[in-house]
Design a protein that fits this description.
Layout (H helix, E strand, L loop, with lengths): L3 H6 L7 E4 L3 E5 L7 E7 L14 H17 L6 E4 L15 E5 L8
Antiparallel strand pairs: 1-2, 2-3, 3-5, 4-5
The chain binds guanosine-5'-monophosphate.
Length: 111
């Protein structure tokens, strides 16, 4: 199933890119909830975290490394949140796996 993020990855829709390699793309969220709100996603399409098979663990690890790098790049290494919404009950709106990297202000309780 194609999604907004699939279209962004294929260059069919614009986005403000902050990191890209062969496997991973990171962009600014169009509707940020904090001064820094980035979306880190694999280019390979998985609907969400729960659908990622165990043999893709290295890809997940690389996403976490990219999150560390972007936290440094955006000067939020002292405090940030990295989260994924898995499924409709969690509020997932775009069914292409992505992690929100959020920071730049004091973050309140999660829920
Ligand atoms: P989800 O609710 O699926 O975890 O997160 C989807 C995120 O995508 C939301 O934070 C929303 O603001 C963001 N978003 C939705 N449409 C677009 C878009 O066209 N471009 C960008 N850069 N972000 C988008």
């Amino acid at each position: 199933m194609t999604t907004i993020f699939g279209k962004i990855i294929r260059g069919e829709l614009p986005a403000e890119k902050v990191f890209e390699n062969e496997r991973i793309l990171a962009i600014k969220d169009l509707y940020p909830v904090a001064p820094v709100h980035l979306l880190i996603m694999p280019k390979k399409a998985f609907p969400n975290l729960q659908s990622v098979p165990p043999d893709e663990a290295p890809l997940l690890a690389e996403i976490f490394s990219v999150a560390q790098k972007l936290a440094n790049d955006f000067h939020i290494e002292g405090g940030y949140r990295l989260l994924t919404n898995n499924g409709a009950d969690a509020g997932q709106a775009v069914f292409h796996l992505h992690f929100h990297l959020i920071g730049g202000k004091h973050l309140g309780p999660i829920a």
